[in-house]
Design the sequence.
């Protein structure tokens, strides 16, 4: 399982970092054979089994509802519907995908948060179990709080790693085992980590996920919804710690760290 967690980490680094940079001109002009729609999604596809396309749409709709219910987000009428549907570009195989997306051999897919586009190919590994909910989580969370808000990387990733329900328990176990060792990174250290400076990715993502698990377990999703609304109301250069204090009564990063560590060392 540790190998699977590390694999997912590398994929998510690529996904979110490329969300603002990669042009979709090639994909828009690609000779897609057809498209299939659900309430909130459109799949553009090449040669793909209709059963596989239907599976994508079914899982995407399920995760869309699960994510909003998990966080307590209430979607407005006609949101992500009609011409506002999220687009999923499905290539017939990895070579066709890489010819357009142009990423390294080890990479899998890509998501563009602002334009709500996901790029994948038939039978991409871990797509249904981890990649799809994680990347939809990035889209939903950032769409709610604002695309340009300056948030710590651990917060962005912790929110969506928490959505990978199959990995929650193991990630929490990893952090509980290292909390009293030199490998453990307090939030003051996590707060300084940028995407290009992650040197212990498995620990970084496990800790980020466990912070979110702490907040949801101890305070509940109602407080998290208040926190997200406070983030949304902030100015672009606003201090996210003010939203933390307003929603949770947590004074600062050190206070958050102390409460999180106490949670980790409990039962």
Sequence:
């Amino acid at each position: 399982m540790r190998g699977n967690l590390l694999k997912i980490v590398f994929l998510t680094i690529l996904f979110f970092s490329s969300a603002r940079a990669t042009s979709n001109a090639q994909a828009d002009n690609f000779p897609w054979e057809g498209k299939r729609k659900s309430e909130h999604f459109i799949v553009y596809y090449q040669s793909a089994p209709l059963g596989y396309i239907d599976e994508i749409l079914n899982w995407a709709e399920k995760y869309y509802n699960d994510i909003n219910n998990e966080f307590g987000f209430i979607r407005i009428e006609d949101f992500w519907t009609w011409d506002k549907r999220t687009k999923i570009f499905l290539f017939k195989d990895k070579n066709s995908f890489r010819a357009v997306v142009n990423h390294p051999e080890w990479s899998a897919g890509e998501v563009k948060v602002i334009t709500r586009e996901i790029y994948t190919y038939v039978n991409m590994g871990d797509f249904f179990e981890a990649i799809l909910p994680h990347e939809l989580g990035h889209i939903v969370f950032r769409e709610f709080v604002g695309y340009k808000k300056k948030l710590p990387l651990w917060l962005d990733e912790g929110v969506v790693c928490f959505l990978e329900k199959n990995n929650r328990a193991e990630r929490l176990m990893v952090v509980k085992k290292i909390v009293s060792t030199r490998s453990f990174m307090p939030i003051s250290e996590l707060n300084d980590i940028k995407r290009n400076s992650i040197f212990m990715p498995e620990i970084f993502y496990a800790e980020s996920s466990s912070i979110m698990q702490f907040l949801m377990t101890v305070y509940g999703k109602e407080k998290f919804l208040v926190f997200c609304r406070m983030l949304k109301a902030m100015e672009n250069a606003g201090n996210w710690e003010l939203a933390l204090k307003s929603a949770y009564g947590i004074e600062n990063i050190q206070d958050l760290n102390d409460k999180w560590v106490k949670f980790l060392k409990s039962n």
